[in-house]
Write a structure and sequence with these properties.
The chain contains 21 helices and nine strands. With 443 residues, the chain is an alpha/beta fold. The chain folds into two domains: 2-87, no CATH class; 101-440, Rossmann fold (3-Layer(aba) Sandwich), CATH 3.40.50. Helix 13 packs across helix 21, helix 16 runs parallel beside helix 21 and helix 18 (368-378) packs across helix 19 (386-393). The termini are far apart.
Length: 443
């Protein structure tokens, strides 16, 4: 008993000494750019433990009695010290939160073009006139209980089998990004059925619970949406436009822009030929569709023929968006998803270009440690130590497809040549749009 009392007393003294050191250290550094990170483990209302979050970022001078009191409201706490004066640990100086993210302009939904308003009337009718100030994420209170809910701060767009799952997993490692399920497919699919805005906005629940415990995190924490279909899937457009020669008047990009004009958009693309084959193998498991290199070639020829037939009555853009009619519903051979230039042009029409960060999977694979900090900067998130970036990038690749590729082998050379010719026009337009010949994907 006596020994236990001694141990307990020693622990108390160590904690007192630690707090004294912290106070003294930051008094001496009150004019330097020092950083304290408070990581805490909280519990949700349901009693389930939340994950560790690298929560708060303070610069001296600090009201330590207040901060210590805050720590007593959490289950446990760890204090780590990181001085920004040690430049070797940081890739560049810290990114800062812009004022535009904390005080957003009014949405002006009542002045939308009638055709655009009709496309998403159930969404626009439930959105506020403006989002709450002081939050990094677009948040508002939902009636009648005035529950706080938030939309995604950023969208990870792109294409299936283009690295979105791996990129999402690494973005989720940032302490300011609150975890959510990657692909709700809400904007492009679920909202047309029973997917109410209230349900979609409830994805922010864990972040909102954190705000209740740590109000100072409102201008820092965000959630995202990693649904790749948001970028390209507009299958419902003929409900509003009919058989319009030029294709849809408005697309998902226009709807999201009306709801979130300052959203951050990440796009990752892949050589469209390789993307198509990987997509074919992934979504056509042998148990359901007898896949082979010969059957793949036959399906590619069939889709291209149906596309060329469509061009007799519709524009190139109109046929690209008519994927439902051109693709065989029994087989996943989504060739038109790889016509990137059409989709990129429509997103550029809706959003300023500086709100989209477009990258290639091929570059991501060889330069994750260089691209990931750029992504965090683009999202205005705090910079991560270089060693942490390296650790994130060396983790296992998410959602790879090599086993299925090896089971039937590479596509036939004649298939690759056929696809390269088909995508040549789109790749050229894309490289001109982006000012980068890498998007020609020359062999």
């Amino acid at each position: 008993m006596f020994v236990n009392n001694k141990v307990a007393a020693g622990i108390v003294l160590l904690n007192v000494a630690l707090l004294a050191y912290v106070y003294y250290y930051f008094q001496l550094q009150n004019r330097s750019s020092s950083r304290v990170v408070v990581a805490s483990r909280t519990h949700s209302e349901e009693g389930e433990a939340d994950e560790w979050d690298d929560y708060s970022y303070y610069t001296s001078p600090i009201n330590w009695p207040q901060k210590v009191a805050e720590l007593h409201n959490t289950t446990t706490a760890i204090i780590r010290f990181k001085s920004l004066t040690k430049k070797k640990y940081w890739s560049t100086q810290r990114a800062k939160v812009g004022q535009a993210e904390l005080t957003r302009p009014d949405l002006n939904l009542s002045s939308l073009p009638p055709a655009l308003y009709e496309m998403a009337k159930p969404v626009f009718d439930l959105l506020p006139n403006s989002y709450l100030p002081g939050y990094k994420s677009p948040c508002w209170r939902v009636k009648p209980r005035m529950v706080l809910r938030c939309l995604p701060y950023f969208y990870l767009l792109g294409m299936p089998k283009s690295g979105t799952t791996d990129l999402w997993a690494k973005i989720m490692r940032h302490p300011q990004v609150k975890y959510t399920i990657k692909e709700p497919h809400w904007w492009s699919r679920s909202r047309f059925g029973r997917g109410k805005l209230r349900i979609y906005a409830s994805r922010s629940k864990r972040m909102v619970e954190t705000f209740a415990l740590h109000p100072s995190l409102k201008p820092r924490l965000v959630i995202g949406d990693g649904s790749a279909s948001t970028f390209w899937d507009n299958k419902k457009w003929k409900i509003w436009d009919g058989e319009r020669y030029e294709g849809p008047t408005y697309v998902t990009a226009d709807v999201i822009h009306a709801a979130q004009p300052d959203a951050k958009l990440l796009v990752i693309l892949r050589n469209p030929v390789d993307r198509l084959y990987s997509d074919y193998l992934y979504f056509n498991p042998k148990l359901h569709v007898n896949t082979s290199v010969d059957l793949f070639h036959i399906e590619v020829v069939a889709v291209i023929n149906r596309f060329n037939k469509c061009l007799k009555t519709m524009s190139f853009r109109g046929c690209v968006y008519s994927i439902s009619e051109i693709q065989d519903p029994r087989v996943y051979c989504r060739l038109l998803i790889g016509v990137y230039s059409v989709y990129v042009r429509d997103w550029f029409r809706a959003y300023p270009r500086d709100q989209l960060k477009i990258m290639r999977l091929e570059d991501w694979h060889v330069n994750c440690t260089g691209i990931l900090p750029e992504i965090f900067d683009f999202l205005n998130l705090e910079r991560i130590w270089n060693k942490q970036i390296e650790r994130f990038c060396t983790e296992r690749l998410e959602n790879g497809n090599k086993a299925k590729l090896h089971s039937i082998g590479e596509m036939l050379p004649k298939t690759r040549k056929l696809l390269e010719n088909f995508y040549a026009r789109s790749n050229k337009e894309l490289s001109l749009l982006l000012g980068d010949e890498k998007y020609l994907w020359r062999s």
